[in-house]
């Protein structure tokens, strides 16, 4: 029997890699497509899978569209990756962030409860929920302390997932994923902003790179590795919550050093700290402990930060080169 999956956020970084993984496993993949005035399928095209997904128009802010998507797809597995996912924007659009990232999760869980209660559910939770960290290495038992409207909204999404699991017996799991990047990462996030700038500087199209807090530390992994953990969570007999991380943390400064060195440049000659990119409240350091994911799911990260940044710089050199 062909398995059917419904993926919200299918046009995003993780949605694209997850859809590719599921198609490779023989799934029928349905993707919720939010209406936009511009074409949003560039990632799916880069992976060569845009023609293989069955799109259903809908929006996480529109509960009726979620119900329709559930009924239409008859999904066995639902992956909720759709979100206003950029922390900095969440201070500019706090209500939208809450509507989509918090209440949108309830909308989708309600649709499952009413129309497809045997469907398995994955919620894209985030290390941003740890925010002002309460333990040196964060795991599934570390208390949360979100530091942005995004983190607060995602914490609601996390707890409503736990609550629907406990209230209604849904097979609902929450993956607490630490930052993960790839050549398909949005340009507003710091790794991709840096690798794109490195390519432009190397090819003589830009001279400097303006960044905010370069002392912040993140536990960065490769998105292609992380979507495997999402799938594994839904293959378990019992739903649960898992931290997915590499267990290594690096400053933005050292990540810049790696990226510039990949093309033989020194980051100190190009990076300028610009307070315009500072945030109203910062998450200074994140460092995950993925021991449970390794023990229960048999999941391990396979890509080092140097490999990841190298892959991103190479892709951006190709893209910027094509623009010339
Ligand atoms: P992206 O920003 O790349 O993708 C977000 C996706 O959500 C896009 O497909 C976007 O559609 C869609 N979307 C936005 N608003 C709505 C809406 N109102 N209704 C339906 N869909 C919507 O994020 P990632 O792929 O990086 O992340 C996937 C998920 O994982 C997100 O929920 C994110 O918050 C979470 N997460 C990500 C981490 C990371 O490091 N990448 C870490 C931990 C959690 P469109 O293309 O049309 O804008
Ligand atoms: P986040 O962890 O989800 O907020 O992912 P980002 O990639 O947006 O940011 C990671 C860290 O890099 C945060 O601590 C930011 O404050 C820091 N940072 C420093 N300069 C920049 C910048 O110019 N853009 C972004 N996006 N982040 C920056």
From TrEMBL:
Enzyme Commission number(s): 4.2.1.47
Any one of the GO BP annotations: 'de novo' GDP-L-fucose biosynthetic process
Keyword entries, A-Z: Lyase, NADP
Signal sequence residues: none
Reaction(s) this enzyme catalyzes, per UniProt: GDP-alpha-D-mannose = GDP-4-dehydro-alpha-D-rhamnose + H2O
Domain NAD(P)-binding: 6-312
Source taxon at top rank: Bacteria
GO-annotated molecular function: GDP-mannose 4,6-dehydratase activity; NADP+ binding
Cofactor(s), names only, from the UniProt record: NADP(+)
Pfam families linked to this entry: GDP_Man_Dehyd
Gene3D superfamilies recorded: NAD(P)-binding Rossmann-like Domain (3.40.50.720), UDP-galactose 4-epimerase, domain 1 (3.90.25.10)
InterPro entries found in the cross-reference section: GDP_Man_deHydtase (IPR006368), NAD(P)-bd_dom (IPR016040), NAD(P)-bd_dom_sf (IPR036291)
Protein function: Catalyzes the conversion of GDP-D-mannose to GDP-4-dehydro-6-deoxy-D-mannose.
Similarity-based family: Belongs to the NAD(P)-dependent epimerase/dehydratase family. GDP-mannose 4,6-dehydratase subfamily.
Record's protein name: GDP-mannose 4,6-dehydratase
Organism: Niveibacterium umoris
Gene name, Swiss-Prot/TrEMBL: gmd
């Amino acid at each position: 029997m062909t398995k059917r999956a419904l993926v919200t956020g299918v046009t995003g970084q993780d949605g694209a890699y997850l859809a590719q993984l599921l198609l490779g496993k023989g799934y029928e993949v349905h993707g919720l497509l939010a209406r936009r005035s511009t074409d949003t399928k560039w990632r799916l095209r880069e992976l060569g899978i845009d023609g293989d997904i069955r799109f259903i128009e809908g929006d996480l802010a529109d509960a009726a569209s979620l119900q329709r998507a559930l009924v239409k797809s008859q999904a066995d597995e639902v992956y909720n990756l759709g979100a206003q996912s950029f922390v900095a924007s969440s201070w500019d659009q706090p209500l939208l962030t809450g509507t989509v990232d918090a209440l949108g999760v309830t909308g989708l869980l309600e649709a499952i409860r009413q129309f497809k209660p045997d469907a398995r559910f994955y919620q894209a939770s985030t290390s941003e929920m740890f925010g002002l960290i309460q333990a040196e290495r964060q795991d599934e038992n570390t208390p949360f302390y979100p530091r942005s409207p995004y983190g607060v909204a995602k914490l609601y999404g996390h707890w409503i997932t736990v609550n629907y699991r406990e209230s209604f017996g849904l097979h609902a799991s929450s993956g607490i994923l630490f930052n993960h990047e790839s050549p398909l990462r949005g340009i507003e996030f710091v790794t991709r902003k840096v690798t794109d700038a490195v390519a432009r500087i190397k090819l003589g199209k830009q001279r400097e790179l303006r960044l905010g807090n370069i002392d912040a530390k993140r536990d960065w992994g490769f998105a292609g590795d992380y979507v495997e953990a999402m799938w594994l969570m839904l293959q378990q007999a019992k739903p649960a919550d898992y931290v997915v991380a590499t267990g290594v943390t690096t400053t933005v400064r050292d990540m810049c050093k790696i990226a510039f060195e990949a093309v033989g440049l020194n980051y100190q000659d190009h990076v300028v700290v610009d307070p315009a990119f500072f945030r109203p409240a910062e998450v200074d350091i994140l460092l995950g402990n993925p021991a449970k994911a390794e023990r229960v799911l048999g999941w391990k990260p396979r890509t080092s930060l140097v490999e990841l940044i190298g892959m991103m710089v190479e892709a951006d050199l190709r893209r910027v080169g094509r623009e010339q």
